[in-house]
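ok so for the tutorial part 2 we go from a plain amino acid sequence to predicted structure tokens. step 1 is just haveing the sequence, like this:
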Amino acid sequence: MHSADMTTDSSSRSNGEDSVSPLQPQLPLLTAGMQGIGGNIKTIPSDFVVEEIPLYEFSGTGTHVFFYVQKKGLTTAETISRLSQALGVRRFDIGYAGRKDSNAITRQWFSLEHIDPEKLKQLKLNKIKILDITRHNNKLKVGHLKGNRFTIRIRNLHCPLQEAEALAQKILDVLCRRGVPNYFGPQRFGYRYDTHLLGEALVKNDIQRFFDFLLGHPELESQPEFVPARTLYHQGNFQAAYEAWHPGFRDHRDGLKAIIQSNGNLNKALRAMDRRLLSLFVSAWQSDLFNEVLAKRIDKIDIVLEGDMAYKHDNGACFRVENPSAEQPRCAAFEISPTGPLLGARMMELTGPAGEIENPILQKTTLAPEDYIRIKRYGGAGGRRPLRFLPKNIRLTTSRDDHGDFLQLSFELPSGCYATVLLREITKKQ
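step 2 — the prediction. this is what the tokens look like for a chain of 430 residues:
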């Protein structure tokens, strides 16, 4: 499972939440037949607050210093970069459990070994505030996260506050009974919704296509200010393209820099790129396939079929469903859920009626044996992911502040689940 509302650097700077890439699919809603409330999220950063729920209690002792950071308007990667520069350490040395969105106020834990806590207490950085410091005996790593706690305000509603509250509650009642579709949110696919295409190119070793999508294809660009840089790339003017990209788009500039320094040798340029970034692209490709399968099963996310691999919510284990009638009561009680694929060597294939839905989608990838090796090389071992999730500790209120009326929704989600997917069901906005 992956961290909630993860973004890459380039995904965080789209011009507003309603800017939709032409590559973004229209994923079906579970509550499509119910009226939504419309509205906008993230009108101001304080409208979207995320707090990490750690996977384990910190011991208070050890060589690794854990520090709780509140950041505003920054991606996790940007925060790590600023911390590394201020503290004089390598970015790789700073541990974190999950990536968080930039257009929000987020509170998350970081770790650094052998750092003087006093140095952290004295640190003063714009948009970054250290709230707490403790110790533990190991580095904080991606996935060391139980979940996330959200407090979100929705403004500019399409109906009066009280009506919006009633509509939202009816939708939440359905979602808490049947589950929220466990789609990977659009944040996972970059501002242009193309990171899965980059991942597919890496898996199939089509390096030319990888760089073309990363740096070119201006006709697919949803942000006009980036068209010149992409056009210059296709014209072969790599230095001018490098200079045309905003400095904040480090991924694109790093790619162009690697091409320039390798004299156009794309294989060599690829080897110079951040391996963790490439892994994120492959993960996005796996995520897109999962979303496609989930879209096919949207009306049956709370029904197990023969041949399913069912997910046990108490411990994360999976088992083969042989007798759906016997297992369905457990599914209705949200003890188990059907799963979708994270394609890779460790993924268990579905059989029977369940396989008849999923397998044709996976077979369209036409992977060769060496492609599976590359998936593993980029960290995509494969597995299963539940098709739904259950939000907890939900609280729905309405109020007004200096920015106007709002509906406030507070809830907790398991690690790897996206708040924006739940909000989409309520607002009925892409």
